[in-house]
């Protein structure tokens, strides 16, 4: 299993310090980058699937931006050094890496979130856009206890049809 990896990565896999999935990505970094990434992942101790995701983002950002994994990790030090639970730090790191890896996608998602807020839908309604912007179909969820609540929600949807159409244009 670990024979296909550089020695430093193989040792980390065998010691169960990093996941096999993360190692598959990290093997494309130079030795210094692998060391920085492994130390970062060992310190943060994310789940195996998140470790794989973080490693892939580090490699992708490094290649795209022409910077080292260490430089990317240095930009995350404020998060990892802050007080807080490992879970919170992990989510913040995930968000920061995702924003950096997919800047246009996160910008569009933020635009959609703002548009949903501006709709000011009642608590009985929620408008959801496609995950990762894959597709053009949205879902509108209507929650009701009786026909009167349903009718009230349908009336609200009719009144806000133009605003909803504006939301759809963002997609």
Could you explain how this protein is built, in words?
- The protein has 171 residues and is mainly α.
- It has two domains: 2-101, no CATH class; 104-170, no CATH class.
- 67% of the residues lie in helices and 5% in strands.
- The chain contains ten helices and two strands; from the N terminus they run ααααααααββαα.
- The protein has helices at residues 7-14, 20-26, 31-44, 48-65, 69-74, 77-81, 86-101, 103-119, 147-159, 161-170, and strands spanning 125-128, 139-142.
- It has a two-stranded antiparallel ribbon.
- It is elongated and about 65 Å long.
Any key phrases for this structure?
two-stranded antiparallel sheet, 171 residues, mainly alpha, 5% strand
Give the strand order of the largest sheet, numbering strands 1, 2, ... along the chain.
Answer: 1-2
Structural class: mainly alpha
Q: Characterize the biggest β-sheet.
A: 2 strands, antiparallel
Mean pLDDT: 93
- In percent terms, what proportion of residues is strand? under 5%
Whole-number total of structural domains: 2
Q: Please bin the fraction of helical residues.
A: 55-70%
Number of helices: 10
Shape: elongated
Q: Tell me the number of strands.
A: 2
**Which sequence of SSEs, written as H and E, runs from N to C?**
HHHHHHHHEEHH
Low-confidence stretches: none
Cα separation of the termini? 43 Å
Radius of gyration: 22 Å
């Amino acid at each position: 299993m670990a024979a296909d990896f550089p020695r430093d990565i193989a040792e980390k896999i065998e010691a169960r310090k990093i996941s096999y999935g993360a190692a598959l990505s990290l093997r494309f970094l130079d030795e210094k980058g692998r060391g920085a990434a492994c130390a970062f992942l060992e310190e943060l101790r994310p789940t195996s699937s998140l470790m794989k995701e973080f490693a892939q983002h580090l490699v992708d950002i490094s290649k795209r931006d022409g910077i080292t994994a260490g430089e990317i990790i240095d930009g995350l030090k404020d998060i990892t050094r802050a007080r807080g639970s490992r879970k919170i730090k992990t989510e913040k790191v995930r968000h920061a890496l995702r924003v950096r890896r997919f800047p246009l996608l996160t910008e569009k998602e933020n635009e959609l979130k703002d548009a949903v807020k501006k709709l000011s839908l009642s608590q009985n309604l929620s408008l959801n856009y496609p995950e990762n912007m894959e597709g053009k179909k949205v879902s509108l969820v209507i929650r009701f206890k009786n026909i009167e609540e349903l009718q009230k929600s349908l009336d609200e949807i009719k009144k806000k049809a133009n605003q909803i159409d504006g939301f759809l244009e963002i997609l």
